[in-house]
Design a protein that fits this description.
Order of helices and strands: HHHHHHHHHH
Shape: globular
Distance between the termini: 31 Å
Number of strands: 0
Number of domains: 1
Number of helices: 10
Structural class: mainly alpha
Radius of gyration: 18 Å
Helix content: over 70%
Length: 208
């Protein structure tokens, strides 16, 4: 089991990291601003599921493959970059509508959830980050290292969902205020497209 002091230190650090501008929280912010709070929340659930996958990878040592293999790292990051470019293209081509609720309903909860999973799992730097970050808070004296990795991963996911939930609520609220303005919708869509492109380029150019 994880010591209470370690829990507090890790949870605080996780919240700070979740608040730091990065691909995932910017993604949630852009989606929430475009399509509302519920969109951001379902994307957040998908991202959290992706983090669970990275936790499993670290716990079983699979992340070592990404660290050792340049080919697999490159394949995964380019898949992620291509997906972000696709989302940017969708945002850029999005039409203007005063019926914001109808637009949100056009994207199913399953698709939003899946979008978050893909966004997170196709970023190999998350696995490498987990591999470097989690062991700093695990101690063999406190029992199974694998169990501690799962516990730490769960704490990180909890902190991420808390922070991203707030981001979804705030960004979604701002987006709803401008939902009946054609000009504002166009600005939000173009801004979201620019954010997605920026994230795609950053991911594509990233190194281990």
């Amino acid at each position: 089991m994880i010591d209470k002091n370690v829990f507090l230190a890790f949870f605080t650090t996780s919240v700070i990291l979740a608040l730091s501008p990065g691909p995932d929280n910017l993604f949630v912010m852009a989606q929430s601003a475009r399509k509302g709070r519920m969109t951001g929340l379902f994307v957040t659930l998908g991202l959290a599921t992706g983090l669970l996958g990275h936790t499993v990878a670290v716990a079983f040592g699979l992340a070592a493959l990404l660290r050792a293999s340049t080919i697999w790292f490159s394949i995964l990051k380019f898949i992620g970059a291509a997906y972000l470019f696709f989302l940017a293209w969708q945002a850029f081509r999005a039409g203007v509508s005063t019926a914001a609720k109808e637009e949100v309903q056009a994207i199913s909860k399953e698709n939003l959830y899946r979008r978050g999973i893909i966004m997170n799992l196709t970023n190999p730097k998350v696995s490498l980050f987990f591999m470097a970050f989690l062991p700093q808070f695990a101690d063999p004296r406190h029992g199974s290292m694998m169990l501690q990795f799962f516990q730490l991963g769960g704490i990180f996911i909890m902190a991420t969902m808390l922070v991203f939930g707030v981001i979804s609520f705030v960004a979604g609220g701002l987006g709803e205020r401008f939902s009946n303005s054609a000009i504002a919708q166009k600005v939000v869509n173009r801004t979201a497209a620019a954010v997605f492109i920026g994230l795609a380029v950053k991911l594509a150019l990233s190194e281990r």
